[in-house]
Amino acid sequence: MASESEVKIGMRQWKEAEQRYVAVFSTSILNTRELLKDKLKHYEKVHARVIASSSNREQFGMRVFHSEKRKLEKQLYPSAIRQILNRILRALTLNRKVAKVRKEAVVNGSDICNALSKAGLGNYYQQVQNQMKQGNREFSLPVSYHVNEHEKMFLQMNFKKDDDNKYHFESYNATLHSDLEKGGPRKHMFSMLETEAYDTNKAYQLLAGRAVQAADGRTWSQFDFNDKEANGNYRHKNFPQNYGFDLEKAVRELPLRDSQMDRLLEQLRSGEKVAVAMSVNNKEAMYSISADPHKREMAVYDETGLRINKEQLKAGGIRKSNVKQLIPKNSSEQQESKVKSLKVR
Predict the structure, then answer these.
(1) Quick one: 300 exposed, middle or buried, by C-beta within 10 A (0-12, 13-18, 19+)?
(2) DSSP 114
(3) Helices and strands (H and E) in the chain: how many
(4) Is residue 129 a contact partner of residue 119, using CB atoms and an 8 Å limit?
(5) Which residue from 96, 227, 243, 321 could staple onto 235, CB 3.0 to 4.6 Å apart?
(6) What is the pTM of this model?
């Protein structure tokens, strides 16, 4: 997509504003002195943005733009002396306006950087910043990475500029491709503007079918893959505190060996499937566990990746020969693999 110049953006913004005024009032509103003053102020802001952007694309557009400004000045101030005085005043304040625009751009960049970090996408700030410098009103940036040998995530980060020239990280579309699940890829759009904004780790866990705990620490949420909203998103199944699932109690009922409980609980609250060592029949073996608030228990998987119940766990799991190892790498290995394979397409 070709970059849209600041002049074109500014002119389009004003035309859109005029259309809104006309829809509420009538076309006569466009020639009122109050609105013409606002129009001139808007043009001055656009002029400051052009200078602040240091763009070479503006030369022809600025000639037309200045011509429009002069016509507007004559309409507002018929007196030649008043026109000159206003131009002198604007020239004196222009540098201050340009400095303000540049400061706002720095603050906006910091806000975007923080939003990306919150989503687990901080490594992509430079690519996003390069797109922001192009000046497009909205843009998307694709990202893909392997979670483990069986699963791959595709993301599309979506950004949009508002009428105050400020960019927002609005959402990201996430698609999980998995060799472990039937039914094709799972897709969901995650909003970054909602109170409960999920980072990409939790997005993966939800798409993988696991439950994550809300930031308030009282509610668990899980996707219902059999029910979708009008926009194609999966609906959430929510399990509030009074539903009866006690994560810490459920974990402590397992025969874990030397687990760092705080770290383990943190991972499980994020929906992760965690590799742990358990002592069963006086023998230590590796299993994987994840939270299952729906059944008010911990989901336990043996070394083949099959879920087992309490009786099977006591018996040491289900032993089957020639079963392909399905358990994904443990969380630390996943993170290392994820960092190594992140790339922008």
Answers:
(1) buried
(2) H
(3) 10, 12
(4) no
(5) 227
(6) 0.75
Over its length of 345 residues, how does the chain's per-residue pLDDT go in tens digits?
344 577 887 888 888 889 998 999 989 898 898 998 898 888 888 888 888 776 555 566 677 777 888 888 888 888 888 878 877 887 888 888 888 888 988 999 999 999 999 999 999 999 999 999 887 889 999 999 999 999 999 999 999 998 788 999 999 999 999 987 788 999 999 999 887 889 999 999 999 999 999 988 899 999 999 999 999 999 999 999 999 999 999 999 999 987 789 999 999 999 999 999 999 888 899 999 999 999 999 999 998 889 999 888 887 765 543 334 444 444 444 444 443 344 444
**Residue that is written with structure tokens 């998103």 in the block:** 233
Contact by Cβ (8 Å): 137, 337: no
**The dihedral sign for the CA sequence 91, 95, 100, 101:** positive
- Look-up: residue for tokens 């129009």? 39
The residues near 293 (Cβ < 8 Å, ≥ 6 apart) are 211, 220, 222, 239, 243, 245
DSSP letter for 233, please: P
Q: What is the Cα–Cα distance from 338 to 152, expressed in whole angstroms?
A: 10
Residue 39: which residues within 8 A CB-CB, separation 6 or more?
14, 72
